[in-house]
Write a structure and sequence with these properties.
By secondary structure, the protein is of the alpha/beta class. It has a domain of 142 residues: Rossmann fold, CATH 3.40.50.300. The protein contains nine helices and ten strands. A six-stranded mixed beta sheet has the order 6-7-8-3-9-10, sandwiched between helices. Strands 2-1-4-5 form a four-stranded antiparallel beta sheet, with helices on one face.
């Protein structure tokens, strides 16, 4: 197994000359639960999409599991986007069949079981689902894969506080053993007890990239460090 799930060097991404990721370099350890933390609009989603191989027009070097971003890296990576990707006419079962056809590591029976646990009707169409139901559907599909790396973009962002514990429990108990799980969030307090490692983004820069053990040695919580380093780094893309 690679020592690092991701190795990134001098990564630059801009939109119409507005720099979102400003020549960032970092390594993220393999086999850990990593929190990608930062305020809304700081570039977390852009970084996730680059790591997932969905954005290609950037400068710099990006390695995923020791491989260049491409077909091979995508096959071993499960990505949960921050918005829906299926046509509104699709039913729950259609989405499950799509993933079963597309990904060799997909467990169809697990997906059906998750749908039952989430209270999702297999024949319900996406266009009739609430935003929260659609996000649960996306999550059950991703967590039904046996991937080496899971990239979860704001998995708790659109659900009410009562549902967050259920969603987090699904994530923590269903990723493949020894896999790397990267969770982007601005809800630091809800998730910090689950992380092994954190990386904090602000104004397109890496502000912190360290293990939870190193933070605990300072006597501070992740949320306290987050508030200190983010400071005025709240910026809208």
């Amino acid at each position: 197994m690679e020592e690092f799930a991701f190795k990134v060097r001098k990564l630059v991404k801009d939109y119409d000359r507005h720099v979102v990721l400003d020549s960032i370099s970092f390594d993220l350890p393999a086999g850990k639960i990593v929190g990608l933390l930062g305020p809304n609009g700081c570039g977390k989603t852009t970084l996730m999409k680059i790591l997932a191989g969905l954005i290609h027009d950037y400068h710099g070097i990006v390695k995923v599991g020791g491989k260049n971003v491409g077909t091979e890296s995508k096959a071993s990576l499960a990505y949960l986007p921050d918005c829906g990707v299926f046509p509104a006419r699709f039913r729950t079962i259609d989405c499950i069949k799509y993933f079963a056809d597309f990904f060799k590591d997909f467990d169809r029976m697990k997906a059906v079981r998750f749908a039952e646990e989430f209270g999702l009707d297999l024949n319900q169409r996406i266009k009739t689902m609430s935003k929260g139901m659609q996000e649960k559907l996306q999550l059950l599909l991703v967590m039904s894969r046996k991937a080496d790396i899971y990239l979860l973009d704001e998995p708790l962002g659109g659900v009410d506080p009562a549902a967050r514990e259920v969603i987090l429990d699904i994530i923590m108990n269903n990723y493949k053993e020894h896999s790397t799980v990267v969770i982007s969030t601005h809800l630091v307090n809800d998730l910090e007890h689950s992380f092994d490692h954190v990386m904090m983004l602000g104004k397109g820069k890496i502000l912190v990239n360290t293990s939870i053990d190193n933070i605990r040695e300072t006597g501070k919580s992740v949320e306290e460090v987050f508030k200190e380093v983010i400071g005025d780094a709240w910026e809208v893309d």
